[in-house]
């Protein structure tokens, strides 16, 4: 880890240049297949500072995981066509060589995967895997690295870490495996932590433990965190800012308060309406979004959401022909929708807000 | 949807009567070792459940993984044979019926599976999948099986033209609809739905939940819903049974359970649900349970929750709390229940001893 003073100077310089710690600009990830080009991510931009948490929300196939894998440089070469820019602390990751990105992984950025059983190697002990990652970035002896691994396991709340360090992944329960993976991801104090559905495979009581853990560790290490999930409850717990994705593009971007209290995009309304709420009066019926998510090979022209949108007819055909840009509605709350501010306000006040 | 406002038709017996009753249901899976395959232990997946289901209601079984809710579902549909205990469906004991004796009953008791990818044969067309129940049960339909299948597809919101398509051509939500159409083919009375929406996206989940509710109203269905998502359970259920390590720890009306949970485990579960409301972030008081669910091979003695319970005392390690009715329609198995009305914990203990 760099000295705090250096770090401050670094970020001062960055801010002076108008760059954020993580700065993603117009990222596109396309996969050519026999059936056509799959546009998994089709032009998204966001910024993230240290100590902040960004939540990326969307349904399956909206491009949230593909985004995180391209930040980590984990798309196999030759498979994905990546364009745009990803700056991590001023360094462009899209242009960097694989070896350069490999050296950043673990130290500067790390990832927690959804399924710890397939993310960990079944043949090596948990300790071995943490030690290996630690020794890539730190010139230390095996004994020192092992001590560090035990410390990390203790930190994430694994009981008897000195014994558990020699266990194999299959000997851990689901929650413990997820903790072990978090320990591995945090072993080199990464500046950027990406958590891709970190709690989806877990039970609700264990989920609560893991969310608390991520929050505590972020406070301690002052890392930037991206949390990717389809569970709006989870992002509401953790995120400062939220990006709602649909069909590979951002539909809405704002602070957590803005997204939950004054959502602007019909898709966000749909997501909030589809969810039964445990904290509210029970509604007689849920309000689903009609239809199904589009195929990414054949994304609808215009606004990708228009076939499922109840308000597309209000825009004089623009929804079917023009792709809406992500525009600022004031104070950084951005939305990609053709609805005029008056129509949107009216729809929100009369149709949506009373039912949520 | 309560049991009282649902309409009853003359052909169907009265709403509100008992359709299924389960007494001391036990399922242990033996663990065998060595050359002689001697039994060295047992996974106590389900260990003494007693509950009943009334016609037209939705009873949900909730709990964390390994609590035995899926095993219970498979016992109710008799995909598994219970180790002991009794399952009575419409007055008939079905706990140990043989395959052949069970077959006529399969018309009345059907199951919806969790995984819409694994539960449909990829080599069969939708028509064949949904039509299979007619063939297996030798049911003659008025205008032929094809017509009946197409009507079913329409009923669940698919197009009749989908008859000749294969499962891989459909999305997850559509596949779940195919599964539901198959379940409904023979107009069952009781449907056991094992996590029917947990594999689906949020927007699709709402569509399927609404569909299940509409079908219940239309055909007077009785659901036993197995789920882990407490928000969904609250939305669909009339009554909820909370399970922990093979036992029911609390069984109550939806409203009672969510507003006045009595068992500490239920309280902890409810407090752990992430709420999509940023204002609650700061003030939300969360009960953090320590550790994981213990193994059902060697469950803790007496109250099985005592290893993780913050209220546990010596009695919890020695005497197993029975499932008793502490408020009207509200059963709890705990020595020191929360949110209690008139009764004191001591009274509950006395009742437990007698």
Give an overview of the whole structure:
The complex is a heterodimer of chains A (356) and B (354). By secondary structure, chain A is α/β, with parallel strands linked by helices. Chain A has two domains: 4-239, 3-Layer(aba) Sandwich (Rossmann fold); 268-355, no CATH class. Helix content of chain A is 37%, strand content 20%. In chain A, the strands form two sheets. Chain A has an eight-stranded mixed sheet, sandwiched between helices. In chain A, helix 5 runs parallel beside helix 8 (174-186), helix 6 (142-155) crosses helix 8 (174-186) and helix 8 (174-186) packs parallel to helix 9. Chain A is globular, with a radius of gyration of 21 Å. The model of chain A has no long low-confidence stretch (mean pLDDT 87). Chain B has helices spanning 69-76, 99-102, 126-136, 144-155, 172-184, 202-219, 230-236, 254-259, 264-272, 280-283, 314-318, 345-353; strands spanning 18-33, 38-54, 58-62, 84-89, 92-93, 109-112, 190-194, 222-227, 239-244, 247-253, 324-327, 330-332. The radius of gyration of chain B is 22 Å and the shape is globular. Chain B folds into two domains: 18-108 and 188-292, Rossmann fold, CATH 3.40.50.300; 118-187, no CATH class. Chain B contains twelve helices and twelve strands. In chain B, helix 3 packs across helix 4 (144-155) and helix 3 packs parallel to helix 5. In chain B, the strands form two sheets. An eight-stranded mixed sheet of chain B has the order 6-7-8-3-9-10-12-11, sandwiched between helices. Chain B has a four-stranded antiparallel sheet with strand order 2-1-4-5. The model of chain B is unreliable at 1-12 and 342-349 (pLDDT under 50). Chain B is α/β, with parallel strands linked by helices and 354 residues long. Chains A and B meet through helix 8, helix 9, helix 10, helix 11 and helix 12 of A and helix 6, helix 7 and helix 9 of B.
């Amino acid at each position: 880890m760099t000295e705090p003073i250096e770090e401050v100077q670094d970020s001062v310089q960055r801010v002076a240049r108008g760059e954020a710690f993580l700065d993603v600009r117009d990222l596109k990830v396309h996969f050519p297949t026999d059936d056509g080009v799959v546009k998994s991510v089709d032009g998204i931009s966001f910024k993230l500072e240290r100590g902040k948490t960004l939540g990326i929300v969307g349904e399956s196939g909206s491009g949230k995981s593909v985004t995180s894998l391209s930040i980590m440089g984990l798309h196999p070469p030759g498979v994905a066509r990546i364009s745009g820019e990803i700056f991590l602390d001023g360094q462009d990751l899209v242009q960097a060589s694989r070896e350069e990105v490999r050296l950043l992984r673990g130290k500067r950025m790390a990832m927690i995967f959804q399924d710890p059983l397939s993310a960990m190697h079944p043949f090596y002990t948990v300790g071995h895997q943490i030690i290996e990652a630690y020794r890539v970035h730190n010139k230390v002896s095996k004994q020192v690295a092992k001590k560090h691994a035990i410390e990390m396991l203790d930190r994430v709340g694994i009981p008897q870490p000195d014994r558990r360090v020699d266990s194999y992944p299959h000997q851990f329960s689901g929650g413990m495996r997820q903790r072990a993976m978090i320990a591995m991801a945090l072993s080199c104090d990464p500046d950027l932590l990406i958590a891709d559905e970190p709690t989806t495979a877990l039970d609700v009581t264990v989920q609560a433990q893991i969310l608390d853990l991520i929050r505590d560790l972020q406070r301690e290490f002052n890392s930037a965190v991206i949390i990717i999930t389809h569970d709006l409850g989870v992002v509401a717990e953790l995120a400062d800012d939220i990006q709602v994705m649909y069909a590979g593009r951002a539909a809405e971007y704002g602070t957590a308060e803005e997204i939950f209290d004054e959502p602007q995009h019909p898709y966000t309304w749909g997501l909030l309406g589809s969810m039964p709420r445990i904290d509210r009066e029970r509604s007689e019926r849920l309000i689903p979004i009609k239809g199904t998510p589009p195929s990414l090979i054949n994304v609808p022209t215009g606004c990708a959401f228009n076939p499922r949108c109840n308000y597309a007819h209000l825009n004089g055909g623009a929804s079917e022909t023009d792709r809406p840009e992500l525009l600022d509605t004031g104070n950084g709350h951005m939305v990609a929708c053709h609805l005029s501010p008056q129509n949107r306000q009216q729809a929100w006040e009369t149709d949506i807000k009373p039912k949520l | 949807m309560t049991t009282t406002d649902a309409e009853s038709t003359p052909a169907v017996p009265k709403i509100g009567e008992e359709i299924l009753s389960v007494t001391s249901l036990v399922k242990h899976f033996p663990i065998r070792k060595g050359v002689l395959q001697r039994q060295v232990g047992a996974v106590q997946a389900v260990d003494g459940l007693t509950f009943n289901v009334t016609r037209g209601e939705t009873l949900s079984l909730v709990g964390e993984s390994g609590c035995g809710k899926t095993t219970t579902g498979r016992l109710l549909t008799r995909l598994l044979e219970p180790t002991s205990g009794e399952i009575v469906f419409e007055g008939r004991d079905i706990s140990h019926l043989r395959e052949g004796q069970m077959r006529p009953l399969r018309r009345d008791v059907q199951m919806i599976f969790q995984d819409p990818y694994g539960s449909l044969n990829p080599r069969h067309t939708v028509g064949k999948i949904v039509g299979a129940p007619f063939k297996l049960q030798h049911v003659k339909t008025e205008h032929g099986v094809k017509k009946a299948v197409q009507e079913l597809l329409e009923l669940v919101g698919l197009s009749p033209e989908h008859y000749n398509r294969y499962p891989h051509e459909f999305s997850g939500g559509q596949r779940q609809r195919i599964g539901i159409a198959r379940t409904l083919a023979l107009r069952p009375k009781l449907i056991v739905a094992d996590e029917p929406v947990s594999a689906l996206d949020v927007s699709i989940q709402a569509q399927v939940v609404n569909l299940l509710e509409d079908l219940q109203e239309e055909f007077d269905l009785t659901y036993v819903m197995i789920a882990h998502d407490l928000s969904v359970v609250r939305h669909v259920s009339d009554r909820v049974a909370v399970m922990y390590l093979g036992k029911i720890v609390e069984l109550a009306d939806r409203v009672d359970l969510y507003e006045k949970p009595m068992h500490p485990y239920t309280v902890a579960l409810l407090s752990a649900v992430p709420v999509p409301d940023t204002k609650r972030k700061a003030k939300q008081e969360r009960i953090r349970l320590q550790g994981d669910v213990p193994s059902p091979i060697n469950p803790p003695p007496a109250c099985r929750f005592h290893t993780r319970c913050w209220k546990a005392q010596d009695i919890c390690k020695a005497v197993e709390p029975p499932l008793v009715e502490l408020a009207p329609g509200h059963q709890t198995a705990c020595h020191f229940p929360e949110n209690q009305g008139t009764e004191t914990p001591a009274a509950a203990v006395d009742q437990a001893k007698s």
